[in-house]
Amino acid sequence: MKHLKLTKRLQIASIVVLIFAAVNLTVFIQSERQQTGLNNSLSNGLGNHCHFVNLECAIELDGQSINFSLSRAPTIEERIDVVISSENPFELEQAVIEGVNMYMGTLPVVEEAVAEMTWRGWFMLGACSEPTMQWRMTIKFKGQPQPAQLLFTTTF
Which residue ranges traverse the bilayer (predicted)? Predict the structure, then answer.
């Protein structure tokens, strides 16, 4: 009799563990699908986009590699420096940042120093009610029909 009660308890515990694992797997898969959909929608079909990894990303623009780097992880209400560099000369027309998952207006990237193959600037991100905020930096290069889009996230 005790053996049957113990077996029944083990069966119930196993079922609970399986249900818990299935729910976690479903949440993970759904999260991955949403993130992939978000990444696709962030690029708006443009070929010139990248996500920052370890504060850096690079794009290929007319056969020219252009590198982007941030001075620190993007944080709200703090100055973040950005450097754009290439092995060939380039000119920037405009650099702005916009919120993706919440309207935050258009934030300028302020030009600080310009050289033939390096552009330096800085920006500050506003605080909002979203705990995780997706951002898109749009950079227009002179003579290029499509802008570069750099994607990053902040959390608080």
Answer: 12-29
10 Å CB burial of residue 101 (0-12, 13-18, 19+) is middle
CA distance 3 to 60: 68
Count of beta carbons in the 10 Å neighbourhood of residue 6: 10
From CA 73, how far away is CA 79, in angstroms rounded?
Answer: 10
SS3 string, 75-126, reads: CECCCEEEEEEECCCCCEEEEEEEECCCCCCEEECEEEEECCCEEEEEECEC
d(CA 146, CA 63): 14
